[in-house]
Amino acid sequence: xxxxxxxxxxxxxxxxxxxxxxxxxxxxxxxxxxxxxxxxxxxxxxxxxxxxxxxxxxxxxxxxxxxxxxxxxxxxxxxxxxxxxxxxxxxxxxxxxxxxxxxxxxxxxxxxxxxxxxxxxxxxxxxxxxxxxxxxxxxxxxxxxxxxxxxxxxxxxxxxxxxxxxxxxxxxxxxxxxxxxxxxxxxxxxxxxxxxxxxxxxxxxxxxxxxxxxxxxxxxxxxxxxxxxxxxxxxxxxxxxxxxxxxxxxxxxxxxxxxxxxxxxxxxxxxxxxxxxxxxxxxxxxxxxxxxxxxxxxxxxxxxxxxxxxxxxxxxxxxxxxxxxxxxxxxxxxxxxxxxxxxxxxxxxxxxxxxxxxxxxxxxxxxxxxxxxxxxxxxxxxxxxxxxxxxxxxxxxxxxxxxxxxxxxxxxxxxxxxxxxxxxxxxxxxxxxxxx
Length: 436
Description:
- The chain folds into three domains: 107 residues, Trigger factor ribosome-binding domain (Alpha-Beta Plaits, 2-Layer Sandwich), CATH 3.30.70.1050; 194 residues, Orthogonal Bundle (Trigger factor, domain 2), CATH 1.10.3120.10; 96 residues, Chitinase A, domain 3, CATH 3.10.50.
- By secondary structure, the protein is of the alpha+beta class.
- Strands 6, 7, 8, 9 and 10 form a five-stranded antiparallel sheet that branches. A four-stranded antiparallel sheet has the order 1-2-4-3.
- It contains twelve helices and eleven strands.
- A hairpin with a 4-residue loop joins strand 1 and strand 2.
- Its main location: cytoplasm.
C-alpha cells in the first residue's frame, strides 16, 4: 500500500495513505452476510431477513466500522514501515483525488523527539541525610505519650497545654454573626487551632470567669464576611483540664504491642520504625533533587499532544480533589485550560528524559529488585508475608512497584555520576515535612 510521509514541523508529520476500495467493499459484504445469518427483524425468522433490508438497515454502520479498521490498519503499517514513534492520537481526514479504485486519507500527527543525553558528571545534586539516635527515639516516645494523654480537672488559670471548655459569642458591630457562637466548646491552648487573638484572650482565665476581648481575623480568612475585620468575643471559661501523660513503663510498652512490656524491645522497635520512615523521607527528598537536576542533561521539543493530555489529567485530578473537599464544582469558576500547562511540560519532559536514560543505560527493574522493594514495604505491616503475596497477586500493584524501582535505578545512576553534596537535615524538620 503506497504511503507518503512529510515533515510539517520539528515533530509534526503528515502521512498520505490509500485504502483499496475493493478491499473495503469486500469486507463490508462479508460482515453483512455474517450479520444476516442471525439477524432478527419483525416479520422474519432469524437468518431469513432479505439481504437488501440488511444492507439498508446496517450498511452505513458496518461500512463506517470497516473503513475505520482499514484506515487504522493502514496507518499502523505505515508507521511500522517508516519506523515512526507516534506521540498521541493522529488526526485523520479524507483526501480528494486519490483515484477511482482507492480511498485517500491524510493523517496529521506528532512523533517523539530524539533525546540526546548529556554528561551526567556536570550535574550538581544535593543528597539528604538524617541521623537517628537516642534523642530522636525519646522524641518519638514523647509523641506516643501525648497521643495517649488523659485529662484531669485543674482549679487554676488556663495555660498552654491545657484543655479548656468554653461558651462564646462573637459579634460584629454588636450583632452576633453566623458560626460565631458555641457552647461547651473544647480545645487545647497553644496548639494553634484557634486564632492567635482568641487564644491570647482565653489564656490566664480561671474556671467560671467571663471575659470580652477583640479578635482580629486575617485578610485571607475563609469567610469573606469576617476577613480583615475585628470582632468582639464574649467568653465564659467553664473548665480547665491539665494533661496527664502516661509513664514510660511496662504497661505503656504493652499498650504499644510490645510482648511482655519489654522497654528495651520497645526502643528497638521504635528505632527500626524510625529508620524505615526516615529512610523513605530522605530517599524521597534526594529523588526530588535528582529529578530537578536531570532536565539540565538535554534540550528537546515536546509533543503538544502529550502536554495537552498531561494537562487534562492534572485538571481532572484538581477537580476530583476539590470535590473530595466537599466543594460544588458547579458553583466554582471554570479552571483556565492553560493552568497546568507549565507543570505538564515539566512532567512530560522529565518522563521522556527518564525513559531515554533507562533505555540507554539498561536501568529496567530486575525481579530481585522488585521483590526486595515489596519486602521493604511489607515490614511496616503486622503480617509481612501476606502483604508480599498481595502485591504479587495484583498486576497493577506490581507495575507500580516496578515503576518505583526504575525511578530509584535512575536516581542511583545519577548519584553515581554527578557531583554530589551531602546535606544533613534535622530530624524534626524532616518529620514535619509532608511527602507527596
